Task: structure prediction
Amino acid sequence: MIFRPSRPLDIDPARQEVLDLEAIAKIVRKTAGALYAAGLRSGDRFVVYKDNHFDCLLLASAGIRIGAIPVMVSGLLPPDPTQALLQRVEPKLLVSNQRLLAGKGSDGASPAAFAEQSVSLDGGDSNALPFAELYGTTDPSPTPRADDELMMLTHTSGTTGVPKLIMYTPAKLQRQMARLECRHLPPITFTRDDVVAMFTPYVHARAFTWIYSTLTLSPTKVLVMSDSDPEIVGPMFEQHRPTVIEALPIDYFRLEKLAKEPGREAFSSVRMFISNFDGVRWSTIRPFLNASRHPFPLWREGYGQSETGGMGMTFVSRRTANKRREELPGPRRVGRPMPGFVTLKVVDPKTFRPVPNGEPGLVLARTKARCVGYYKEPERWNEKVVGEWWNTGDIGIKTRTGALMLIDREVNHVPGSSNLEQEDVLVDRLPGGHDVALLPVTGGPPVPIVATPDGTLDKDLWQQVIRGRPPMAEPIVIDAGDMPRTGTGKIIREELRRRYLDEAEHPGSGRWT
Result:
C-alpha cells in the first residue's frame, strides 16, 4: 500500500511524492521528537491548527504517541471562534503555519497569545519555534493513552456559533467508531485492488476512523487530497484512476463540472462514491455516477454525527440518480441503522414518547460509539443526552421497514413540510453551479437564498423553477462565493438569517442544535 498526497506534506522536509507505511511511520516518529523538543509531554494539550492536509492526522498521531492530547482545529475556522476554543483548552503548544499565526481576532490578538508556546511549520514567525529545526532532534519513547483516558478533542461544525469540543477516548474512537468499516464487507468496504481517494477535513474524527479502516483493509493505493481544485484533481485522477472516492458535499459540488466534461477519464473507474457530513444535492450525484464506466457504480451516503459516528447508510444507483428529484417525492432516505451497532427511534419532541412509524418526530440514537462529552461544557452535553439515547436534533420519519427519512433540523422544522426536500428539487431544476438555502420563518413562507455563479438570477427561469412547488417568498440572490459555509462546507444558515432576515425567529426551539 502506498500513499500519494496531492501536494507534499507540510511536516515532511523531504517533500516526498510517494509514501509507503515505513516512510509515514518515520515522519510520525520524527514529528513526535519535534513536539517533545518543543516542550510537549504526556497529558499536555496541544492544538493542531493548520492548512488542511493528511499531515494534520499525522501531527495528532505524533502527539498521541508521546501521550499528549491533540486538539484539532480547522484552518478554515475564523479567528474569533478559534480564539474561543484556544481559551477553553489552554494548550501547552500551538502547531500552525505563518498565514494562520498572523491572523488577528476582533480584539487584535493572534492565536499564539493563547498558548504557552507555538511552533511554525513553515517558519517566518519570530515568536514561534521553527518546526524544521526541531524535526527528529529527539526520539522519545511511546506513552500510549489508556482505553478510558481522553485521547483527542475535535470540534463541531459551528453552524450556530462557537463550536463545541468533542471528547474521544481510545475505546470510543478506535474500538467502536471504526469497528464496522474495518470489516471486510465487499462491495461497501475497500478491497486490496482498490485505489482510494480521500477528500476530508483531516482534523475531523472521520479522518481517524477512515485511516484505521484503510490500514486494516490495505487498498493498493491511497490518494490523499488536500483540496478539491479541479485543476489538480483532474490530472491526478486521470493518472491514477481511483475506484473509490470519499468526499464532502462541497468537494463534489466543486468537481461537478469536471465530471460533466466529455472525454475526461478522472472518474471512469470509480465503483463507489462516498459522501458524509451533509446531504449531497441530487443534481450533483447524477453526473458522477454517469461519468463512471463501471457497470454498476454506487453512491454511498452516510448518516451520522461527530458525537456518534456513523448511524446509517443508504445507496443510490445510477438508474435511480437519473430520475428527477421530483419523481421521488418525500424526504430523502438516509438509510437503516447498522444492526448490532446502532438503534434509532423517533419520538415526540415534547413528551419524548415514541411516535408510530410513518409519523415525523425527533430522531434519537443509541450507540456504544457515543463520545464521552463536550470539553468544559457539561450543560450543553446534558441537553442532548436522554439516558442511553443521543438526541440528534433532527426531525425524521421511520418507515415500516426500519429506514429513516430525514425531514429537517428541528430548529428549522415547519410541520407538514420539508425544506431539505424542497431545496433538493429546486437545485435539481436550476442550472449547474447554483445552490439554494430555504430559511423558514414563523408565520410566513420560507425565504429562498439563491446562490448563483455570477450573483444574478433570471426572473423567468426562477418562475419555471418554483412552478408547482409550495409557496415561498421572493428570492434573495447572492454570489456563490458569498454563501457562508463551515470548514466542512455546510451552509451557515444562522449567518444567512443574520444578514438577510434581521435574525427572524425560528419555527423550532433550537434546544438541541
About this structure: The mean pLDDT is 94. The first helix runs from residue 21 to 37. The CA atoms of residues 357 and 400 lie 6 Å apart.
